[in-house]
Amino acid sequence: MRPMPTCFSLAVVLIALFAPLAHAQYRELQDFSLAQVYGGVVLDSSGNIYGAIAGDENDQGEIFQIVMPGDTLNLLHTFNGPPDGAEPYGPLVFDHAGNLYGTTSVGGAHNAGTVFMMSPSSGGQWRERVLYSFTGAADGGNPQSGAFLDNSGHLYGTTTTGGAYGQGTVYRLTLIAVPQETTLHSFGGSGDGVQPTGSLVEDASGNLYGTTYSGGAYGLGTAYEVSPAGSSWTEMVLHSFPGEANDGENPSGGLVFNSSGYLIGAAEHGGMAFLQCQTGECGVLFRLVLQPGFGWVEQPFVQFWQYPGSNPVGPVTLTTTSVIPGVYVPTLSGGANETGAVTQELPYQYGTWIYVTLANFPDDLYLQSNGGLAQDRQGNLYGTYNSDNHSAVYEVTP
Question: Domain boundaries in the chain?
Fold first, then answer.
């Protein structure tokens, strides 16, 4: 790793100190009371919103739809526990036919989680099918991330337990009549990351990239690559987060590619040591840049601090409605209410970035979303959060 100069990181911070508050409107579309909504949301082509309720003491989770405009809530499926799934934590994903795919953290035939599919039928009804039940053994167990769908009929995802070392896996599910699961990598070997919770992203060559919240050389998380090698797959740790002054620790939401081919992610903790926040260091945005002769080099490029929002949780969402390539990311704390915020990060000049608060959360968060933010064609942002008082789906209009 080549650490970025301290003056670079400090410049980002000082710019943030004087950044104006962006004018954006925040509203809650649905309040789910004491239920838990961790996985973010996904939009269909009509702008309707879909997500998963992990459940509470009274149930084992649901799949919901919010019809827009009008914010009408429909429950599409209620999970029943074994042999059905239960407690979905990860985000959902659509295929080209309009089917939804997701995971549950428990339930299934072995009570170690499932991969499921939701298919629309006539009359507005949806049908759920369990595609695969994890055993909790070599194939992994308890997935908390969503699944990534490629163009060849494969779903890729991660589990937080199971595998050869009991610390989680990367898996592939081939969508045939009887779906076939293949374990591509088992986490927990020497110097490896452990317990991945973020979703995966794929490059044009079929390589997969992701993060682990902990493990690695310093125990503070990793960014990794899993690559096909003939009939097998190999894993390589691209970066172990050291928790040093400039660098982050505990990446929480996977990675995304930007138009320059960089991998962008958020580290919930770490960053410059003098920027103390409610939960410790304030966190960073980082990128992985492929440099000839050096491989993937990690570069922190935004240092968070308390006021605009601190402790970012992702994955990040790239700006799609602006000519300026920016980033959106919610934070776990900070903001005007010190209860978390939706922030926007934009390149400024001379390699520095500016970041501003778009909206402040009304309640103190105890766990943010595994799904990041979804953006519609008008640039509105949608996400989920959980507080001690309630969970909600929210909209931010920049």
Answer: 1-21+229-377, 39-143+146-195
